Every structure is written in C-alpha cells, then in structure tokens.
Amino acid sequence: MKHQRVSDLMSDAVVRVQPGTPFKEIAHLLQEYDITAVPVVDGEDRPVGVVSEADLLQKMWGGEPDGPAGDGEGPRPADAKASATDAAGLMTSPAVCAREDWSVVDAARVMARHGIKRLLVVDEAGRLIGVVSRGDLLRVFLRTDRAIRTEILEEALVNSLGLAPSSVQVDVTHGHVVLSGRLPQEVSVSVLEELCRRVDGVVAVEFRAAGEAGAEGPAAVGR
After folding, report:
1. What single string gives the DSSP state of each residue in 150-185?
2. What's the pLDDT at 77?
3. Which parts of this chain are annotated as the region Disordered (predicted)?
4. Pairing state of beta strands 47-52 and 37-41?
5. Contacts of 219 (CB under 8 A, 6+ apart)
6. Which partner from 34, 60, 130, 139 sits 20 to 30 angstroms from 170, CA to CA?
7. Is the pTM of the predicted complex or chain greater than 0.70?
8. Measured between alpha carbons, how far is 219 from 171 in angstroms, rounded to an integer?
C-alpha cells in the first residue's frame, strides 16, 4: 500500500528571500502573493529559516510578552525580533523541512509534532524545491469513492491478501468504507481493516460479517 508522496502535492512555485532582505520587502511579498510566510535561503538555495506574518507583527506590538519581565540577562527572542530589520533577524530557525519522497503521512506527522502549517521541501542536496501545506495534504480526501474502492480491491484484497476481488463486498460512500462477507480463516478482519485505512482518502472503515444488517446490499460504485 503506497501513500501519495510530498512531490505529488507540493507547490514548486516558492517565493523566497535572502537573510538580508529588508522588513518592508518581506511584508510586500506576503501581501503581493497572498501568503502567510516566506522561506529564507542561503546563497546555495538551502533553507535557513522562515519569516511569518507573526514574526512581522512583533514589530507592531514591540515583542513584549504578557506577564513579568525577563531576568535581565539579555534580550528575549521576541524583543530581538521586534527590533529586527531584515530576514536574518526576523526568521524562525532552523527551518523544518521535508524530503520530496516522504509520504503524506510522514509530512502530516512532522507538521503535527512541530505545530506548523507548512513544510519546506528540499532535494537530496538540501536545496529548496517546493512547499507543502496542510491544505495540500488534505487534498487526499478529495479522492473519489470509485478510486478508493478500486485501490482497496486491487491493492488490499488482491495484491496484499491474495483474495479474489469478489470475496469481500466493498462499499465506499464519502470515504466511509464498509466491508461485508466472510473472510478465510487465515485472514483477520483487523488486518484487512488496517490495509483499508492506509488507502489515501479513507475516512473510516467498518466490517460487517455475512448476515449482519446491510451486509447483503449492492456495492456502491462511488462518485
């Protein structure tokens, strides 16, 4: 079972800036291209950080956090960003990056772990080649029910389990998969359900043994 790759979903038209790019030029680029963040790259096009709208807005409110002041041992990071005038001072570093051959699951996991909305995509040499966002990853749920059902029949039943496509009835409605029938003793329901969950676009999986309500209805062919 193969998930879509980051390279299938990423945008390769990436607006980028250099560490010395001035504050106002960054603000102009965010507005002009209707984006919320821009990667900062070095002279070899390798990402070194990201400047977001939130970084720029610290200039407006001064970077002073709510609550007690710091310990006086030096400027807080927010204070430093509030006084920064170029990308080098504004950026959050290091940049969190993905490889183009990562699966959508890998990318989603890293986004969740770091609490970020996008990942910069780099090639084997570490050079920036694209960006993938949460919205891009969610596109896998736009797959048609027909495509999902076909992949379950071909990949899960035939290729992975060695079953005939007709051995299990597969209904798919809005990404909800209903499996019904009787499985051979050597095939467990949990294994089949897990294989179905690995198919991009699947929202939920339910198995109904033969004889259960709704188990003998006609298969949905999808949209």
Report:
1. HHIIIIIIIIIT---GGGSEEEEETTEEEEEE---T
2. 57
3. 60-85
4. antiparallel
5. 149, 169, 170, 171
6. 139
7. yes
8. 5
Average pLDDT value for residue range 51-58: 92
How far are the Cα atoms of 55, 150, 180, 193, 199 from residue 205, in angstroms, in the given order? 42, 15, 11, 6, 11
State whether residue 190 is helix, strand or coil: helix
Distance CA 26, CA 18 (A): 10
Token reading at 143: 């797959």
Identify residue 12 by its one-letter amino acid code. D
Tokens of 123: 């090639």
CB of 100 within 8 A of CB of 6? yes
Q: Is the pLDDT score of 220 beyond 50?
A: no
Structure token digits, residue 164: 């005939």
